[in-house]
Design brief:
single chain, about 425 residues, alpha/beta, 12 helices, 21 strands, about 35% helix, about 20% strand, binds guanosine-5'-diphosphate
């Protein structure tokens, strides 16, 4: 059975925890898009980890972790991340890297930096991990596949060809140092040595695994609103964040994805620039940020303070819809226990009209939140294991959200730990 875990909003919904938890009963966990630009925070028996490139299943002995063909593969980053968890006492995980994954090149990171610098105050708020230049090159057909590292002649010809183009831009547009093709070749030879132990024809591996009835988990990064087609374009990421893309980015038949667990946080947060209708500011935001997540809402990759907001039914319902959510995992609800009243955004007012449908970016810029106010529960709910034992107002909040989402909330997470979960 193939299951996907994806986010409904801007990312940071708590997917890492849910993946780590569901990985316990999985055989294979796959990253299918993105790169090291976002992070998952996971707390388990080995400690607290922020994973960026490795799938969240790496903490189990019985799982195989796969970097799918859809991922932006930063090879030294991968090797460092493996070493860093092993140093903390985690048994060396079984990792496979698709021979069709493309390599995030050192110059992708530089181009990301240079472009953000050039844009100045109009920058995208990129994490400068090279993701946009990487995917641009992939679709411009000048990317490097892992398999190409193993063909010296092809590699050399391509390195020289690509450097010619990159160097024109470096010299005349950014006024930055040019790339030396021989040095780049040397780096790529090092990359080959680093990645060789993991390279695999993951398509064949996965098709066999499906035939054998293995439990497979597709792990999404970021969320629906960062999808390049359906998100808040252009303030999006450069690869699809949707479960449907899991089939492409892992190389499995789309009809095999039977369950799409969509993670939704009990309030909103976002990193980077872009539309965020229910955003809050000032003390109200500081308080929620400080109490949020596990030790505050700060980016797992950048440490940047996250932008905060109330729960947005319009964005979350849309986010679930485009994911094709079969169930929702509602996370971080414990954090709201301090509030007397909780605002929930139930509609957007655009040019005097209220809509419940998520609009395109141009319309979104004009949207003002329409709030409904629900009573708080004013108590600590961590440690509660049964849904019936939650305070009445907490259950009402969950049921209100469920009705708005139009998807069953089957899991409620009331703490950062692996087993802090209430099944419904
Ligand atoms: P991801 O990228 O979607 O995995 O999200 P992050 O890892 O960036 O953000 C989730 C944060 O919230 C992490 O610090 C988690 O440890 C924490 N977290 C996850 N679920 C819960 C929960 O139910 N309650 C609390 N208090 N923290 C949670």
């Amino acid at each position: 059975m193939v299951r996907a875990i994806v986010g409904a909003c801007w990312g940071d919904e708590g997917k890492g925890k849910i993946t780590d938890m569901l990985a316990e009963n999985s055989d294979i966990i796959i990253r299918f898009q993105g790169g090291s630009n976002a992070g998952h925070t996971i707390i388990n028996d080995y400690g607290k980890f922020a994973l960026h490139l490795l799938p969240s299943g790496v903490f189990y002995n019985h799982t195989t972790s796969i970097i799918g063909n859809g991922v932006a593969l930063n090879i030294p980053y991968l090797v460092n991340e493996i070493n860093s968890i092993v140093e903390k006492g985690v048994p060396k995980p079984k990792i496979l890297v698709s021979n069709r994954a493309q390599i995030l090149m050192p110059y992708h990171i530089l181009f990301d930096e240079y472009e953000e610098k050039r844009l100045g105050k109009n920058s995208f708020g990129s994490t400068k991990s090279g993701i946009a230049p990487f995917y641009s090159d992939k679709y411009a057909k000048i990317g490097f596949q892992v398999s190409e590292l193993f063909d010296d002649e092809l590699l050399k010809e391509k390195v020289y060809r690509v450097c010619e183009q990159k160097n024109v831009i470096l010299e005349h547009m950014y006024h930055e140092p040019k790339i030396d093709p021989e040095e780049l070749l040397k780096t790529l030879h090092e990359y080959k040595e680093m990645v060789e132990p993991y390279v695999c024809d993951t398509v064949t591996f996965l098709h066999n695994a499906i035939k054998e009835g293995k439990n497979i988990l597709l792990e999404g990064q970021l969320g629906s609103l960062k999808d390049p087609d359906f998100g808040i374009y252009p303030m999006v990421t450069s690869s699809s964040t949707l479960a449907a893309y899991g089939a492409i980015g892992a190389g499995i038949p789309p009809y095999e994805i039977k369950d799409i667990v969509t993670v939704v946080k009990a309030y909103s947060s976002a990193v980077g620039a872009g539309e965020f209708v229910s955003e809050i500011f000032g003390e109200e935001a500081d308080e929620l940020r400080k109490r949020g997540g596990d030790g505050g809402e700060f980016g797992a990759t950048t440490g940047r303070p996250r932008r905060m907001g109330w729960f947005d039914c319009v964005a979350s319902r849309y986010g679930c819809k485009i994911q094709g959510a079969t169930q929702v995992a509602l996370t971080v609800i414990d954090v709201l226990g301090y509030l007397d009243e909780i605002k929930v955004c139930v509609g957007y007012e655009i040019d005097g009209k209220v809509t419940k449908d998520f609009p395109t970016t141009a319309e979104l810029k004009k949207a003002k939140p329409v709030y409904e106010i629900l009573p708080g529960w004013k108590s600590e709910i961590r440690g509660i294991e049964k849904y019936e034992d939650l305070p009445e107002n907490c259950r009402k909040y969950i049921e209100f959200i469920e009705k708005e989402l139009e998807v069953p909330v089957k899991m409620v997470s009331n703490g950062p730990g692996r087993h802090e979960i209430i099944y419904r």
